[in-house]
Design goal:
This protein has 382 residues and is α/β, with parallel strands linked by helices. The protein has a single domain, classed as 3-Layer(aba) Sandwich (Rossmann fold). 28% of the residues lie in helices and 20% in strands. The chain contains 12 helices and 14 strands. The protein has helices at residues 19-22, 87-95, 117-126, 144-155, 164-175, 192-204, 222-239, 250-256, 274-279, 284-291, 330-334, 375-378, and strands spanning 4-5, 26-27, 38-49, 59-71, 76-80, 102-107, 110-111, 127-130, 210-214, 242-247, 259-264, 267-273, 339-340, 371-373. The chain has an 8-stranded mixed beta sheet with strand order 8-9-10-5-11-12-14-13, with helices on both faces. Helix 5 (164-175) crosses helix 6 (192-204). It starts with a strand and ends with a helix. The model is unreliable at 1-25 and 346-367 (pLDDT under 50). The structure holds adenosine-5'-triphosphate (ATP), iron/sulfur cluster and magnesium ion (MG). The site of iron/sulfur cluster has 12 residues, from helix 12.
Length: 382
Amino acid sequence: MGGLTVSPAGMGEGDSVSSSQAAGGNSIGGGQAAGPLLEVSGVVKSFRSGGEFAGRGAATVRALNGVSLRVFAGEVFCVVGESGCGKSTLAQVVAGLCRPDAGEVRFGGERIDHLSEKRRRPFRRAIQMVFQNPDASLNPRMTVEQTLTEVARFHFPALRAGAKARERAAEVLALTGLSADALGRFPHQFSGGQRQRLSIARALIARPQFVIADEPVAALDVSVQAQILNLLGDLRREQGLAFLFISHDLSVVREFGGRVAVMYLGRVCEEASCAELFAAPRHPYTRALLAAAPAVGKALPPLRSPGEPPSPTDLPGGCYFHPRCRYAEERCRGVVPGLFPPPTPPIGDGGGEEGSSGMGGTISSMGSGRTVACHAVAEGRI
Ligand SMILES: Nc1ncnc2c1ncn2[C@@H]1O[C@H](COP(=O)(O)OP(=O)(O)OP(=O)(O)O)[C@@H](O)[C@H]1O
Ligand code: SF4
Ligand SMILES: [Mg+2]
C-alpha cells in the first residue's frame, strides 16, 4: 500500500487530493504499521423488532453481544457462523452503516464508530463492501462507466476532469477480469458472476485498504464461486488488501484461508488460523458446526448439538451455547466464559460477567495463537 498518510479528521467534503492520492497513494493509519488496521472492541448492537402498535409484541433482538476482533493490514479475517448469528450486523457496524450501542470500532488507530458523515468520508473510501447480491451496489439504470466514474470522482476530485476517471474505470475492470467493452453496458447485460466482478470493481475504484465481503459468493453457482474466490485472493495478494470475509459456508471459508472467528448468537466463541480450526476445532459449537459439514476438515468425534439456537430476543444466561452443549455444567449457565488462553496484549474491556458488554473477553489476532471462549476447554475437560 502507499505510504502517504492522510488525516481523516482534517479531510472534509470538497477537499482536494494530490495527484499521488488520486493515483491511490494515500492510506489511513500509515503510521500505525505495527498496530491493527481494524480493531473492534466489545461491540454490542440490538434492534427493536415488531410491535408497531403501542409497543405490543415489540422485542429486542440482540444481534451483537460484545464482539472483539483485530484485523491487520493485508490480512484475511473470516467470520463464520449460522444464519442470524450477527455476521452482517458486524459488517454493517464496521462499514459505518449502523452504529453500535456500545463498544468501539477503530480504523488505523482512529475511533470511527461515532463519526459524523463528513468526518467519516475518508473511511468510507478506505473501507469498501462487496455484498452477497451484486445488484445491491449496481444501479440498473446506469452504465458500468457511469457507476464506476461516479465513485471515482466522488472520492478523488483530481479525477473529475477529462477522461481520467474513465481510464481508471477501465483499469479496475481489467483487475477484475473484465474488458473495457463493459463500460458502455448496463448491469442486466452481464451474468451473475460478471455482475459480482462489477461490484468488486466498484469497490476497488475507491482504492480501499479494507474490503468487507459479506457472503460474496453465496448467490453464485459453484463453478463461478471458485472464480470469484480466486479473484478476491489475487486482489488480496496483488493489491495488499485486508479482508473481512463473511460466510455461513465452512468450505468457502476454508478455501479463502486466513484467520477465522466462529460466531454464535452475536459472540465470537473461537478464533484460530484456518488450518488450526479445520484440523482441530476446540469450542463445542465449532466442533458441532464442522461435524454438521463432514466434507470439511477431518472426521470429528460425534458431538450432540440438539435443537435450534435460542432466540436472539430471549438469550440464556452464561454461555449462549449451554442449552445445546453436552459439556455444559452449572457454571456454564451463569458465567460467561472468558477467553482461553487470555489474549495478550489485551484489547477492549475484557469483561467476563453476564450482563457486561463483553462476550467474556476479547480476541487478539495475527500470530497470537488461537483463543476459545469455553469453560470446559479452560478447565481441561475437553
Ligand atoms: N434491521 C434489523 N431489525 C431487526 N432485526 C435485525 C435487523 N438486522 C438484523 N436483525 C436481526 O439480528 C440478528 C442478526 O442478523 P444478521 O443479519 O447480522 O445475521 P447473519 O449472521 O448475517 O445471518 P445470515 O447468515 O442469514 O445472513 C438476526 O436475528 C436478525 O433477524
Ligand atoms: S462454556 Fe460450557 S456450555 Fe459453553 S461451550 Fe463451553 S462447556 Fe459448553
Ligand atoms: Mg448476513
